[in-house]
């Protein structure tokens, strides 16, 4: 990582060097390269915040009707009350309609609606208010309506968003301000209008910094939480979470999903003969070597002790067998005595094995791994009791 980018991460964002990963800068820019676990956790967080805020707005929006009725002339106050009631209904609907399901698309939809309701309210209220020249208390209350885009842009700061997402969500509020100026162009005072616009751009910039900083911390936390500290591959807990996500995808889209349960052979003897530290080193080296041989979309997890789980999304049984043949041909590395390190592997696939859920898929791969142990170790057992030869 370059000195300049490290300066940004450490000095500007306040993260420690170990908490920053390769490709994190790209992940702050756009959500395309986010790993599925980060995407799903972020989707949950975004939608929960959307629901929290729409709940809050559904209480606060109608309360202001009383102030309008006491301070603004009729029928303006009643027209604004009608608008407020419509907005309240929309907020209530938003609070109840969307349930977090880990899909980013749904979270974006929720955010778009949360921001669209006040933006429309702002435009329509502005149209109504532009027909009146209000002074005194009425003037002060009506001026309050012009603050809505500022509130919206500042509200962005509570969401962990990438820079591109920030821009997309800030744009409607900025456009609403421009449109309101266009609709009442003759009555508008240009310096005030452009001054307000400049202020909104500034607030949007500060919000973008707050959003991306939150996201950077979230990425660091997720990375720490999902990795196994010894080997650096995914932990058991994150393996379960990813299996849940991948299972939903396999069921919905019909895409294949292969799972390999890997148990190292005679690992205890490494510890017994060479010590626990040598055992740890062997596990670390194996994880690093395996990681290099796999595709970016493949997911290697440490299930526990000397057991690993390999998740192969969008991979059929024959394709998974090819992957394992390649891995076994290259070898799993060496034991401290120079002998080849071997493993017993159980392979199962979502559709071909007709499993009902991911625990069943895992149980099948685990059972096949035991079969491989019983049949003499250093082999792969997959569907139809097919045993891949020891020397692939
Ligand atoms: N060094 C080290 N050893 C570990 C770790 N986790 C588990 N082990 C050891 O891995 C060994 C697993 O032993 P067994 O379950 O008997 O399996 P095995 O010796 O590989 O024999 P088979 O699986 O039957 O081929 C135990 O001695 C554990 O203490 C770890 O993080 N580091």
Task: Briefly characterize the structure.
With 392 residues, the protein is α+β, with helices and mostly antiparallel strands. The protein contains 14 helices and six strands. It has helices spanning 3-12, 24-29, 36-71, 76-97, 104-129, 136-144, 148-155, 163-183, 190-226, 236-253, 267-274, 276-293, 317-330, 358-374; strands at residues 257-264, 299-304, 307-313, 343-349, 379-381, 387-388.
In words, what does this structure look like?
The structure is a single chain. By secondary structure, this protein is an alpha+beta fold. The chain folds into two domains: 3-225, no CATH class; 236-388, Reverse transcriptase/Diguanylate cyclase domain (Alpha-Beta Plaits, 2-Layer Sandwich). Helices cover 64% and strands 8% of the residues. It has helices at residues 3-12, 24-29, 36-71, 76-97, 104-129, 136-144, 148-155, 163-183, 190-226, 236-253, 267-274, 276-293, 317-330, 358-374, and strands at residues 257-264, 299-304, 307-313, 343-349, 379-381, 387-388. It has a six-stranded mixed sheet, with helices on both faces. Strand 5 and strand 6 form a beta hairpin. It is elongated and about 90 Å long. The site of guanosine-5'-triphosphate has 16 residues, from strand 1, helix 11 and helix 12. Guanosine-5'-triphosphate is lined by residues 230, 263-268, 271, 276, 279-280, 283, 305-306, 373, 377.
């Amino acid at each position: 990582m370059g000195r300049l980018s490290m300066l940004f991460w450490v000095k500007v964002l306040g993260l420690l060097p170990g908490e920053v990963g390769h490709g994190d800068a790209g992940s702050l820019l756009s959500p395309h390269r986010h790993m599925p676990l980060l995407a799903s956790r972020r989707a949950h967080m975004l939608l929960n915040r959307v629901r929290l805020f729409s709940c809050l707005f559904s209480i606060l929006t109608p309360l202001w009707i009383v102030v309008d009725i006491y301070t603004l002339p009729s029928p303006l106050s009643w027209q604004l009350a009608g608008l407020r009631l419509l907005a309240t209904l929309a907020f209530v609907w938003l609070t109840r309609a969307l349930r977090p399901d880990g899909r980013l698309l749904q979270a974006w939809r929720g955010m778009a609606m949360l921001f669209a309701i006040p933006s429309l309210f702002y435009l329509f209220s502005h149209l109504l208010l532009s027909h009146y020249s209000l002074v005194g208390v009425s003037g002060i209350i009506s001026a309050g309506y012009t603050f809505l885009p500022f509130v919206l842009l500042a509200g962005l700061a509570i969401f962990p968003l990438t820079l591109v997402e920030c821009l997309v969500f800030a744009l409607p509020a900025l456009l609403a301000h421009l449109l309101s100026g266009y609709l009442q162009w003759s009555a508008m005072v240009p310096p005030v209008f452009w001054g307000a616009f400049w202020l909104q751009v500034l607030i949007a910039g500060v919000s973008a910094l707050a959003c991306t900083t939150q996201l950077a911390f979230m990425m660091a936390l997720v990375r720490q939480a999902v990795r196994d500290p010894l080997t650096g591959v995914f932990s058991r807990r994150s393996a379960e979470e990813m299996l849940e996500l991948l299972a939903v995808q396999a069921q919905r889209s019909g895409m294949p999903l292969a799972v390999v349960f890997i148990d190292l052979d005679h690992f205890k003897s490494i510890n017994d003969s060479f010590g626990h530290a040598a055992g740890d080193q062997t596990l670390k080296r194996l994880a690093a070597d395996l990681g290099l041989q796999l595709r970016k979309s493949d997911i290697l997890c440490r299930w526990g002790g000397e057991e690993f789980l390999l998740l192969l999304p969008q991979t059929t049984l024959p394709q998974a067998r090819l992957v394992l043949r390649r891995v076994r041909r290259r070898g799993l590395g060496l034991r401290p005595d120079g002998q080849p390190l071997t493993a017993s592997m159980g392979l199962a696939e979502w559709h071909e094995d007709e499993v009902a859920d991911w625990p069943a898929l895992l149980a099948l791969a685990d059972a096949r791994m035991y079969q491989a142990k019983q049949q003499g170790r250093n082999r792969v057992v997959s569907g139809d009791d097919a045993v891949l030869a020891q020397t692939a």
